[in-house]
Structure formats: C-alpha cells, structure tokens
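Progress narrative, work stream C.
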Amino acid sequence: MLTREYPAAEGKSYERRVFWGEDGLTPQFWEALTLQSLFGRSKILIVRRAHALLKDDWDKLSTALNRFYDQAWPFFCLEVAFERNKPKIPAVLAEQKYWIFAQKKRWVWESPPLTPQTVQGYIKDWAMANDMSFGPGVLERLAEVMPADAGAIASELAKIELAVDGRRVVGPELVELVSSSAELHIFEFLNAVQQGAPPAKIWTTILGAQQSGENLLFVFLALLVREVRVLWQLYHGEKNVRVQPWLAEQKRQAAAQLGPARLARILDLAVEAEIGVKSGACNEDQALERMVASLAALFQRRGQSSPARPAWRERG
C-alpha cells in the first residue's frame, strides 16, 4: 500500500492510499474504507489492477458498497485489455449489483489504451481544450515522436504549451522540443550503466526519465521496459520498430552489444522491482536502488564500482 496526501480544490486535505489487486482486499483496505479518521480527513482509496481481485473480494464489496462513506472514496482500476473496442470486464464483477448500478449512474469511466493511431486524436483534444492549432504537417509529426504513454505525452504537451508563449499555433520548430526526451533519457541511462559511468551521471539520467512529480519507480520501469522491447526487436532484425530515425543506428549497435541474455535479465529485474514494492518487501526508493545496483553488477567491468545513491537524493 502506498500513501500520499494532497490538497483538493476546496482546500481540504485528502489522503490518497493505493492498494493492489494481486494482494486482495487487505485488512488495511477495509479499515481505510469503514473507519473514520480521528482528524476528519477524507481518504481516496485507489485499487490498482482491480481485475486481479478474486470472487470472494467482489462478493464482500457487495455489502460494503450498500452505504455511503463520506470520508472514504474508493476507486477500482480495471487495467484490462480492450476487445472489440470494449474493456474485458471480469465475469464475476459484471454480475454484481453495484457494478450494474454504477453503470446506470455513469460512474464507470473507460479509457482505451493509446496506440500510434490514437495518439493523434489525443493531441487534437489537447489542442481544442487549449484553443491551439497546428502548422502544416505538425500534428502528424508530433504523433510520430510522442512516447506511447499518456502521462509522458501530457508532460510533453505542457512543455509545448509553455514554448508557444501566447502564439496559439504549434509550429514545426516545436516538434524538436519533444524529440522523445524520455526515450533519450532511458537510452542514455542504459549506456551510462553499460559503460560504467560515474554514479552522478547514472542518477541524473534516471531522474531525467521522470515525467511527473510522483511514482518515479513505476514511470521509470515503464520507460525501461519499453526501451528493452525496442532493443529486443532491433536485435532480431524487425523492420517496423517505432524508434526515432536519428537514434535507430545507435540503438541497433546497443542491442547487438547487450545481446538477448542481458536484455532478458533487465526485464527480470524490472519485474522483481515491481513485485518487491507491491508485495510490501520494499518501498519504491529501495526497489529503484536495488535495481540500479543489479544492473551495474550485470554490466560491471573489472575495477568499476556500482552506483551508490548520491547524498543529495538522501536529503530530498
């Protein structure tokens, strides 16, 4: 479980608690849902990967959701694949009365995964909301260079909004502002570890991959896994790999140097880091440090030391 506090628009302080479907609905979840805080602080309870909950969990919710809890607002995130343009809802949930009621009340929000084809629509919606337009060919080019992650795209669009500086027209020169900066940072990170770069450079590239002010580990893992997938495809000679043209040859060389065994091991380490946090064995910072140390050991050359966490991060 992860906990974070943030202010709401009305000035009230909300405490956000995150739970994971693989863990089931734990005693901590039920306490957070049913017990009132001594300080009267409202809680937002987010259950990530809720599709992994078992039938017993969904059945227990049937009783709990029969009443309104003014200090606890539960959100269940069903992170499932789309089939025929609809999310694949677990059958045991679809038959629950509270699910049917929530659908009637339009409390169910669906968001299809981003694809290269839908990124352009995502950018269009952003432009309309911000009263912006695009120069000739700019929209298409932006869709090509954007990372396939909604959070990362939102960060890049915010960067463009600042650069437009009141002109309200996104010109071709701003496409270079994006240049898949997250992709470049993560590629630089792998290069830095592989070449035994100084610890400060390695941690700088990790922090550069962060696209938002929170959940650094999971943003970093998502970018890392995507990068390893691209390198794996390049290693095996696949032609239609989504990669920046100016980085393609460098990545082919990197893929050849890393080889399939090391690429597979990087994916193993990413899974280990995620499981470590979700199981409660470690927190996000510890998982990130262990992963970086393991990667350094994977690429370590004689006489090199693993990248210890810099002191300035300890103070943060």
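Work stream C, second folded protein:
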Amino acid sequence: MDNQSVRETSARIDEVLDELGQSALPPVMERVEELLRCVMSLYGAGLDHALEIVHDVGGEDAMRRLADDEVVGNLLVLHDLHPDDVLTRVQAALDRVRPYLGSHAGGVQLLGVDAEGVAHLQLEGSCDGCASSALTVKSAIEDAILVAAPDVVAVEAQGMVEPGPALLQIQPFHSREEAAEHVSTGWQHLELDVPPRTLAQVVLGDSRLAVANLDGTLVAYLDRCPACGDALSGGSLAADLLTCACGQVFDARRAGVAADDSGVGPMVPVPLLPEHGGWKAAVPQGAVA
C-alpha cells in the first residue's frame, strides 16, 4: 500500500466512524469504539515489540529509517512510539523546505505546537505584495507538516507581506482530512535534471514550468513572462537573476519580483518539494502556462 492509499484509507475510516456515530444506537457505537480501542492496543503492542527487535538487530540506523518512512512513521506517531516529539518533527519538516521557503518568504519560524495540536508559525521577510507567493508558501508548509507530523491538526501562521502594519493571516491551514484531499489532488510527481546555474522548461500536466537551479536550490515558476507573455525558459540565468528574452529581469530567489523599477508584476511561483528521490510540484489553482 503506497502513501496515497494510506491517506485515503485513513480518511475512509474517519468517514465510516462519522456515519456510524450519526446512525447507530449509542450502545452499538460504544461497542464499536471499544472494538477499535482493542484492535489499536493489539497493533500498538505488536509494533512496539517489532521496534525492539529492529533496534536489537539493526541498531539506531534501522530505527531512524523506520521513523523517517512516511507510512511507518505515521503509525509510530499514532501509537506514541515515534522517537521524535511533535516539535522536533515539525521543525525537521520546515528545515527540509527552508531553502525553498526562503526564496519566497524570507524564512519561517516555529513558535510552538499547542495542546490542541495547532502548530503556530511566524513567516519572516516579505513577499513584496505577491499574493501568489503567499499561496506558494502556504502550500509548501502545509504539505511538509502534514507528512512529518500527522498529529498536527491545523497550522496558524502570520507574516508581513509588504511594508506597513498589515498582516497576512493564514489561519487555519486545512485540517488533516482536508489537507490530505488537497495534497492528493494538487501535487504531481516529476523528475528533474537541472544542473546548477541553469534554467529548463518542465512540463507538468497542462502547465509548463521554468525551473531554475540557484547553485543547488531548485525553484519553479510558471513558464510565462509577466512582461511579454513568452516563455521564461527561453531566457537566461545569471546568479539569482532570470532574464527573459524580451529583456525583463526577475529575481528568482526573491519570489520572482522584477529586478528593476519597471512596475512589471512578479513571476508566478510554483511549490516544488523533494519526494522520495524525485520532486513534486503543485500548480496554483487556475494558473496555466
């Protein structure tokens, strides 16, 4: 069973329990809940013994591989057997996507996870008023935390998007169930081979992406120049600056903003995250290039 099937099965279990809660008589529902508790206790005890055997045979490296696997790691969280607490797992998720987040929002700080399972974040830096960059940051953070910390039920974040007192409130992100649906329909797997300091066009479904390798940090944008409408991938990349064939220059590391005072809007960023040796991307809804 792959990761997506696990998410769908988990969501289906929640749906069935909700349906039973609405239709079954209270005594029947109590017996169903007791049965689930017994089954969970049995599987939890078996998983605990399996971990002891793995540790004795394979040591800490084997334990870490199990904990880092998305499916097994989620089971360990479910049975309170994961070696890392929720703060450590959320922080690790943010660290994995920090290079990408930094290119669009300046960074993100974990403030904590409260007793209700809500993770509180502070977005740092500025998206220079770019709403698409804010949505990109939201999608990237949401997916990273969903995978690493399924026990987080929601994410609340705040951060400056332009100079002045206005705050961008992203609260809450999707719940676990909503986020799982969002991830399953929005993210698409792709293979990338973009050497450092180069620019390439990548086809993703009905969209074309311009992917830039900024000395090891991959960032993606819709392959359409805001100034002329032509493909950005036909331009050139020098350091962090992407120059379209029409001559317009954009800062690929700073959310794709224009590098001059021309008044041209920013490039449209696309969330791009590592996934099992490859990559996955999510084109913003309604955005096609």
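The chain has six helices and 15 strands. No further action is required on this item.
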